[in-house]
Design a protein that fits this description.
By secondary structure, the chain is of the alpha/beta class. It contains twelve helices and 16 strands. It has a six-stranded mixed β-sheet, with helices on both faces. Helix 3 packs across helix 4. It is elongated. The structure holds adenosine-5'-diphosphate and magnesium ion (MG). The site of adenosine-5'-diphosphate (ADP) has 11 residues, from strand 2 and helix 1.
Length: about 325
C-alpha cells in the first residue's frame, strides 16, 4: 500500500480552557482532494497550522508522507505547499517577484525558479501581467498568485485554507478548475471550507469538524444522503388547530415536524412532493397558506445529526432513540 499523504493521530491544540482542536485523527491517501468542512471557529485553520508545522500540537501528531511533523518538521515541510488563510502575497511586488521570492525560500536555483515561475503563471492565466504589482490585481488574481507561490517547489501535497473565501462566483469557479487540474496532474489536496456545496463538488472525501472535534469522514455521496434527511419545508397556515397540525405531520413524505413560532417545520427527504401534499391539504380543507419555504440544513445541524442523531430520523440503518437537541440549537445560520 502506498504511504499516506497525511496521517493525523489525535491531533490536539489547547488555548487556555479551549480545546480548539480536540483529538482529531484521519488519513488522507495520495491523489485525494480531501475536504475539511466546518463552520467558523471549528478548528480548521488551527489544524492546518499544525499540519504545516507553523503551530506545535499540544498533543498528538501527524505524518506527512511518512515525515513526523514534530520530529522531522523539515522533512515534512518539503512535502507540501500551503496557501494560508491570511494572504502571504506581497502587494508591492509583482507576481513574478513573489514567485521568485518563494523559490528562494526553498533554495531553488535561479534558472529552475524562472522556468517554473513562468510555467505556473502561464497555467494560472497571469502571464502577460506578471510584471505588474500585485496591488493592482483583483482578489481572484491575488489568490492565484498565492497558489502559484505555494507550488514553486513542486510539492506533492497542497494545503488550501478556505481558498475561495471572499471570491466572486467567477473567480471561485476558476480556482476550482485549477484545483481539479492540479489534482489530475497528481497533486494531493487538503482544503478547508465552510461551504457544503464547495466540499460536495470538489472533494473525494469530506471530514466534518465542529468545536474542535471530527464528526465523520465520508464521501460526498453519503453526505448528500445525510443532507437529504435534514431538508425541511416550513409552512405558515393561520389558525391551525392541534389536530390539523397532526394531519400535516402525517403527510406521506413528512418524517418529523417541529413547531417554530407560528410556523410548522416539516422534515422531508422530498421537499417538492411535500409542497404538493401541503397545497392539496390546504385546498381540500379550505386553509390559506401564508408562507412557504424550503430549508436546507446548516452545517451545525449536519454536525449534530452526525454526532447525536435526531429523533425520528434514522442514522444509517438504525433508528436513533435519543431526543433531538436540534430544537434549541437550530436557526440563525442558514
Ligand atoms: N492563537 C489563538 N489563541 C486563542 N484562541 C485561538 C487562537 N487561534 C484560534 N483560536 C480559537 O480556536 C478556535 C478555532 O479557530 P480556527 O482554527 O481559526 O477555526 P476555523 O479556521 O475553523 O474558523 C476558535 O474558537 C478560535 O477563536
Ligand atoms: Mg479558518
Amino acid at each position: 500500500m502506498a504511504i499516506a499523504a497525511i496521517e493525523a493521530e489525535e491531533l490536539t491544540r489547547v488555548y487556555g480552557s479551549l480545546r480548539a482542536v480536540d483529538g482529531v485523527s484521519f488519513t488522507v491517501e495520495p491523489g485525494e482532494i480531501f475536504g475539511f468542512l466546518g463552520p467558523n471557529g471549528a478548528g480548521k485553520t488551527t489544524t492546518v497550522r499544525m499540519l504545516t508545522t507553523i503551530l506545535t500540537p499540544t498533543d498528538g501528531t501527524a505524518r506527512i508522507f511518512g515525515h513526523d511533523i514534530r520530529r522531522d518538521s523539515y522533512g515534512a515541510r518539503l512535502q507540501f505547499g500551503v496557501v494560508p488563510e491570511e494572504s502571504n502575497v506581497y502587494l508591492e511586488l509583482s507576481a513574478w517577484q513573489n514567485l521568485l521570492f518563494s523559490a528562494r525560500l526553498y533554495r531553488i536555483p535561479s534558472h529552475d525558479a524562472r522556468l517554473r515561475a513562468e510555467r505556473l503563471l502561464q497555467l494560472f492565466g497571469l502571464w502577460g501581467r506578471h510584471q505588474e504589482k500585485v496591488q493592482v490585481f483583483s482578489r481572484g488574481m491575488r489568490r492565484k498568485v498565492a497558489i502559484a507561490m505555494s507550488l514553486i517547489h513542486e510539492p506533492r501535497l497542497l494545503f488550501l485554507d478556505e481558498p475561495t473565501s471572499g471570491l466572486d462566483v467567477q473567480s471561485t469557479r476558476a480556482i476550482h478548475e485549477l484545483i481539479r487540474h492540479l489534482n489530475q496532474q497528481g497533486t494531493t489536496v487538503f482544503l478547508t471550507t465552510h461551504r457544503m456545496e464547495e466540499a460536495q463538488s470538489l472533494c473525494t472525501r469530506i471530514a466534518i469538524i465542529n468545536r474542535g472535534r471530527l464528526a465523520t469522514v465520508d464521501t460526498p455521496t453519503k453526505l448528500r444522503r445525510t443532507l437529504q434527511q435534514l431538508q425541511a419545508v416550513e409552512v405558515q397556515i393561520d389558525g391551525l388547530t392541534k389536530a390539523e397540525e397532526e394531519a400535516l405531520q402525517a403527510l406521506p413524505t413528512v418524517v418529523r415536524a417541529l413547531r417554530r413560532g407560528s410556523a410548522l417545520r416539516l422534515y422531508t427527504p422530498e421537499p417538492v412532493e411535500t409542497i404538493r401534499e401541503l397545497l392539496r391539504y390546504a385546498d381540500e380543507n379550505g386553509k390559506k397558506i401564508a408562507a412557504l419555504e424550503t430549508l436546507q440544513p446548516s452545517l451545525e445541524e449536519v454536525f449534530l445529526y452526525l454526532t447525536e442523531g435526531i429523533e425520528g430520523v434514522t442514522v444509517g440503518e438504525q433508528a436513533v432513540p435519543q431526543a433531538a437537541k436540534l430544537g434549541s440549537e437550530r436557526g440563525g445560520k442558514r
